[in-house]
Here is the input.
Amino acid sequence: MNAPASSPSPLLRQLPAGFDALHCEFEDVLFCLPVDLTLNGETTSAWLMVSETTCAVAAMQADAVMVQSGPFHLDHADKARLLQTVGSAFLQLRIDGVYVNVARFSNGLREMHGRGVTQIKRLLAGDAFQDEALTSKSETICSDCGMALPAAKAPCPRCTRKGGIFTRTLGLMRPYWSSILMLLGAMIVGVALDLVPPILTRYLVDDVITPKANLHWLPWILGGLVAAALFSTALNVLIGRTTSFVGTRITKELRERVQTKLLGLSVDYYNRNSAGSLMSRVMGDVEYFQSFVSQVAQGFLLNVLLVLGIGTTLFVMNWKLALWVMVPIPFVLLGTMIYWKVVYPRYYRVWDSQSKMSQSLHGLLQGIRLVKAFGQEEREQERFAKSAAYVQASKRSLEMSAATFNPMMGFVFGLGGLIVWNAGGRDVLDGHITLGTLMAYFGLLGRFYSPVQSLSNFSSWVTGFIAAGQRVFEVLESNNQLEQPEQPKTIKRMQGRIELRNVTFGYDPYAPILKNVNLTIEPGQFVGIVGKSGSGKSTLVNLVCRFYDPQEGQVLIDGVNVRDLAENDLRKDVALVLQEPFLFRATIAENIAYGRPEADPISIVHAARAASAHDFIAKKVAAYDTRLGENGAGLSGGEKQRLSIARALLTDPRVLILDEATSSVDTESEQQIQEALAHVCKGRTTIAIAHRLSTLKNADVIYVVDDGRIAEHGTHDALVESNGIYAKLVKIQTELSRLEAA
Amino acid sequence: MKSNIIPFHAPTSSVTVRRLHADTITLTRDSHAMLTCTISGDALPYRGVCALLLFPISRPDEWVSLRFTDATDKDREIGIIEDLRAFPEDTQQLIRESLARHYHEQKIVSIVSIQQRYGQLFFKVRTQRGEEEFVTPWRQDRAEDWGTSGRVLLDALNNRYLIPDMNALKPRELRLLRTYIYW
Here is the structure.
């Protein structure tokens, strides 16, 4: 059997055993890495050997070393790279202008070979070999148990085991222990009270009604029954109110915790999880926790107590009859186990169907204008009907199981009652027991079977709870956060000097978007960034905002690595205006003051005026108090954008980043926004990404990004004169404008 | 070091698709087993050529993109082969070999067991190369749709395990898979 991909062989500092035949060629071997695929994709157990001058891949075959690839002389190569393909990767050397395959390996060995390629690059560049870089702790495999981690740098779920869903939920209940203990106490008293009516009934029948004697006991027995019922009612009120109090508080706090956790997760997490699925966790799954206390206390513990208490009483009263009572129990247990196994997966499907329907509806409502513009209402109707049918099918399947299971259990219990009638009736007729005892027995029988049936139904709730709990804890325990510095550095007054030093970054670490980018932006400079779509422009500003950390190199603000900077400083002094402005369902004033809620009205008006937004706001009936609809519904694209600029300005950031801020608005709005920007950019570092090059004419420096590299930089005039990529883009846009004008 | 870097010369405008025909291209293998593509009318041959499928699920024998890396390390498309079967056998063979290098995944023949422990799924499966085990986080991004009835399972390290047709699994295996991969 092939070894699991989670346990790759370690690297070697010497030739592998049996490779002596290659000793001459690899006398000065630096490292050897395991290779698990031939270049054609067949499984192999080979080694990539790298020396100062040579590299090759070889494997043992029938007691002989067979070179599978190479040897390649490094002085014939000028570059090395790791080429990611679908499901595997290649280590390649550029020899004579062409990348040549040296080794192929599965993705399980990618991290190790990624480090190997870095060292080969160093050798090609004449830099010193870094032995420690090869052996640093793996980010993808647990160094203690060897299991693949769920995400890079994530804690190992096996080594940091936190127990099951119930154990972890009990951890959440810690602040409510006193209320929960009080509940338990009340329930025990309740169980004792439940035993009183049948026992009193027995005395009533056997000692008062049947012998027609002791009539003076009657009011006392009836009084006892009334008192027991009163106490029981009072206890039920107490239990109900306490479980509701604890349950609603837990749900509220848990929902807040999940939301706080979501806010702290990196942008990368949101790339991997849909908004619909996360919404369903916060809204629906958390709801399950509200009933945790009541279900565990009343649905489980109380019923267990009742079964034990009443069961013991039944045995004490008549052990032979009690054994008949137990006949249905094995069938109930068996039925519950089968039900659990069948129903468990169906809960997941219900959740999945609801989550997909919510995603579908969310997408439809967001893109309603597009749907109408393309006349695709019917298609969307069909698409939604499919989602709704999936919900219907999955719910039906779940509910039908319950609808079948519950009556069947009722039937089994009914049979139990008939068995007791038969056996108990014979005993009464034979004079072994009194009628009062049988009556009391039946009183207790109902009280015994009812909690047993509740316990079997409890399995249904547990199934749903485990499914929901799994998803909630997945968010709560997610480690997808950027590392925060232990002792963050602060910048008292940010100047706004930005430097990218040898930055390489890819959303997939082995497919870099930005490749060894170097650039420096001086405080107060207005810098333009241009390039084709997908060239890496937005990625570059994502790094300045520290939405991601680069795999190599550093991003520095005022000389401080953003990794070391206090997050608050970064967010306070770096503002971002996006192509699609996002506005909250709140007043215009609240939207502008989003980053500085304590701002006074005059500051808000100043910011709005600076962003050329004041006049259109003032004309609204409720002016700054106008309550906006979903994402600024009721405002034009240009108005929304000016509000988002005002929001950025109110924080008085030292660095202002405009990511295609004017590309989705009409020419007139663009002109107004440009005027606003010309005013607000003064005195602060501004990075503007723009497709319309005319908007960057006055930039101090323009950087042209091409395929993840800075291809050109300079002023508009200098770049036009140099006749490179920028000049070509200018020519294309000029031509387009001319065509539009014609 | 001797350099023979090919400058990129755009074969056609960047917005039009260049279709490659059997009578205009020649593919050969160089000393490092890399493909070289010569197109009649183009000044220089393209070296280090690789192929990939534009519709790998729905049309695995059609719409093959031939690509190479230019002198500035940019990935460039030479052109597109509409139907591979229209090419000579030896050319088809070279392109299929190149495609085999681009795709690597294990085909799951049957599912032996799936266990869920601490939020991870432990799979024991039979693939075309024998019995294998892999572990993956129990997350939705770990199972992708493949065509209308297939699924690709990605392990924690992004190795790919393909189930070409879920309906071809035995009912017990399908039930087991759907217990965990329910979406």
Notes: Chain A touches chain B through 56 residues (CB under 8 Å). The two ends of chain A are 70 Å apart (CA to CA). The first strand of chain A starts at residue 29 and ends at 37.
